[in-house]
Amino acid sequence: MSHIGISIHFAYIHISVILTLTPLSGAYLRYLPFREEFDAEKFSKRKKWYFLWTLICLAINLFLFSDGVTYRAYKISLATCWWGYIAISLGLIGKKLQHVFVVGMQGLWSFMLHSLSGIIIAIIYGTMTEELLPLEVSLYLILFLLLIKVEREFFINILPTGEFFAEKWLTALIPIAIFIGTTIPIVNVTFMPTWQERFSRLFLPIFFLIFYRSTIIIRQEIEKNNQLEQKNQIMSAQAASLREQNELMSKSQREVELIRQDLLKNYTELEALIKSDKILAAREFISRQGARLDSTRVKMYSHSALLNAAVSIYSSRAEKLGVKMECKIDLAGKILIDESDLAVLVSNLLENALKASATQKKPLKREISLILRNNGGQNVLEVMNYYAGEIKIGENGLPYTNEVGHGFGMNSLEIFAEKYDAFYDFAQENGIVRVSLYWNNHL
Known about the structure:
By secondary structure, this protein is of the alpha+beta class. It has two domains: 3-228, no CATH class; 301-443, Histidine kinase-like ATPase, C-terminal domain (Heat Shock Protein 90), CATH 3.30.565. It is built from 15 helices and five strands. Strands 1-2-3-5-4 form a five-stranded mixed sheet, covered by helices on one side. The longest helix is centred in the middle third of the chain and has 67 residues, at 195-261.
């Protein structure tokens, strides 16, 4: 076999193998944003699909380049082999909107690296030919490995917050639309006649990626400021709740003083009724005085004074608004957490439930259920209420709102869950909203 034949055969095998590895590099970048959500069991079952698709890609490339290295075969390979990995990953992760967004971002990144490797080869050799395509792909993989730390940092943090996808497919498709827009004009192009065109290919993806990353950083700063503002407003709400609790206590004390002042008068009236043999009237009089005395008592729901205060305040507010509030609190065991954290969480969740319940027109729909139980170190908190309106759900599985002065309940829930390693769940079914929280005592 001649040296030329060996060279051609080597180039044919070389480009087939490296073009099989190229989509694997893209699959790795697309994995990074979802690395914590990969189901290990599902992944182990689908390893064979990854392996099978890799073999199929190798076979496709060997067939495409069997007649030699051409631009046509090169572009068909790049356009074909990555779709199988996308389909397999989508089956593992779900989250179609986020996955489509990441696919577009990864496509732009790969396009940028291919453009950069093409420019480097053009600088070295003065042109770009079909014979240099194996070198271009090899250089692409080298650039990919050299930039791996940058790529990891970028793609790990690439997913924006759930609110970013509020417009559904419109925002998710932006990166892939730009990617398609940059690739369509060069589908049939086999050479780049000017340096201006070479650099134009490079700078559009770079500009978009930098613009996107800057947007995310600015958004993160805005979110930090919003969280700080929310914490300040939560503290203000806590102060208002304390004032309201003091008012309730003061009101009860004033009522007790009035009862004490009327004590002699009440005894005299009761004695007169008994002497007049008006036993039924005497009983009614005693019942009224008992009810009056009960109204001065602040109900004790648990051993926590702060929790009692929080529940008492919202029970009083619910009564004023015509909302029925049922509380089932059983804290026989110890809850080894800061009781102020629990009181703040309960207050914020009841605030949300009360606002939603107050909007219900039917009396039977104006109800709130609070369950708080502890059993052997297992704790459960559940708040339910009626609400048939539309609720926007964020990426964290919790409702969100863009209205100023709202969202404290879910914010405090996230803070609580992170601090105490709690599992939370939000659901809206048949007009009933349920927020549940579960956590264990940790010594």
